[in-house]
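Recap quiz, item 2
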Amino acid sequence: MSATIQGPARLSPTDTVRVGASGLTSRPLRSTLSALGIAIGIAAVVSVLGISASSQAALIAQLDTLGTNLLQVQAGQNFGGATSSLPLTAEPMLSRVGPVTTVASVATVSAKAYRTSYVPVGVTNGIQVKAARLNLLDALAGTMAQGSFLTKATENYPVVVLGATTAVRLGFDTLIPNSVIDIGGKTYVVGGIMASMPLAPDIDRSALIGYPQAERDFAITGSPTTIYLRSTPDQVDAVSAVVPGTVNPANPNEVNVSLPSDALQARIATNDAFNSLFLGLGAVALLVGGVGIANVMVISVLERRSEIGLRRALGATRGNIRSQFLTEALLLAGAGGVAGVLLGAVITWIYSSTRSVQFVVPVTAVAGGIAVSLVLGAIAGLYPAVRAARLAPTEALRSV
Amino acid sequence: MSQVTVLTPQPIDRGDDPRDVMQLVNVRKIYPGPVEVLHGVDLTIKVGELVSIVGPSGSGKTTLLHLMGTLDQPTSGQVLINGIEVSSLSDRQLSAFRARTLGFVFQQFYLIDGVSAVDNVANGLLYSGVSLARRRELAVRALRRVGLGHRLGQPPAKLSGGERQRVAIARALMARPAIVLADEPTGSLDTQSGDGVLQLLRELNTDGTTVIVITHDPAVAEAMDRQVTIRDGLIVSDVVTGGVPR
């Protein structure tokens, strides 16, 4: 009798997955627990990336509204090391520079602000009193929390506008009409409280009064301490280069020019550095999860020797057995990965909703998380799968 | 009336009789130790026979089943199934061969936990390239045939011992194999369930399948048409009785 022996039939992908999944569904608790290891690792990684992306998105959004075209000009030190001052002509000169759109300034007043005149002189709360131009709020893209900013009228009267931090330190939660504070022994009516200004934290800690009033009460010269100017966004660098020469043609080296938005950008970069620590912890969790899966799979192969023997008797090739256990490990890790991504997204969502920042989960974190868990599953499942495939059918059937 | 077959070593002449479905020629099996379990077994089984291989434990009958089931290879000698020498096939070819030609029934049933009776039976054709829908259809038919049409969706844990073995038989007959090898099929069952299982195997045989039952129980052996007795790795008697119900 002559007969040709055909090769084994291929197992369809659906059958491969079904066979792999049957091992998991018959031991649900164990499968869940071992997938949990991977899930925790992936959740840690995804939530770290998500939280950092969300807070970065918030910073970037903040940058966008505040603009990166704000320049801050301050007097530097002269050759002898003494603090220089900005000339009176600085502001009009700067406003003549073509791309400059807004120029505003403040001048520091030596007097201090107190809640009442009974507060000891030494308790200044770190609050500075400054004379401010009326367009300062516009230049800084700031907003008022309560009340109104200085106006053409109020700048001539003892009216003060408080920065966000100043208001807190002086005890103004809400602005009660006709509230007064004491500045240098004189009574000032609080006209408004500003919202926090991320681009000018100095202003948050200041009490602002009008230039004319400051000249009258505190005899300032009118020479500004700090000038804030806006230029057209694409000319920021060019403007920044000509500012020192324009402000102080005689001593351009005594002028400091800075870009406040640089500080915000630096904060974005700082977040990145902090993240790597948490990502490292997530990687360790993933590693432990992978070892857990390998461990469970090795035990599973030992326990299911008779099943392996039966499948070989039913006609499974070594390859079928290998792919069965590999599929099982992949499904386990993949399920863990998906659960981890969801958990990470939920954690990010909770973070972003409590901090009221934008909810962002980077696509790379989602795809990467699932890919990493699958790779981990493949590595963890490889050895147990090879071991299962190597088992001789008789040996597998002998064990009961 | 019984007829005694005289055992004479026959020359290897593969394919001389197409009715020889299983031929063992001077088969020896030595396990590492060394332990010689089979000392040169010659056995020929024809298409459609209902054979029992009976012997006490340690006599080598399970080894014989493994060799006949191509789950293991003899140390020396030849195993021919349907005229094909088993040792000439690769591991992959043997897998395909088992899938198409052989059906197994084990004492421990070896049903997969957490999988319904239908799907357990459908596994009988899992490695034969048959679609899932078709497998399930055939499985339902096979389960009806073994009298379990009402237990289709039950997992093994909810079935009695006799029912489990009937599921296992359904799985073995699913692929319509030429040969069904049963290793102590009644070993874990009470007499009544065991009789049902033997009856099923006999019905299977009536349909043309060659059935080989390995047992230590003389009563089970006697229920088969032909009894091959093995002791200490040698065939000591080979009797055709026509089968007497247990």
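The interface with chain B takes residues 1-3, 5-12, 14-15, 18-19, 22, 25-27, 306-307, 309-320, 392-394, 397, 400 of chain A (CB under 8 Å).
Chain A has a mean pLDDT of 85.
End of item.
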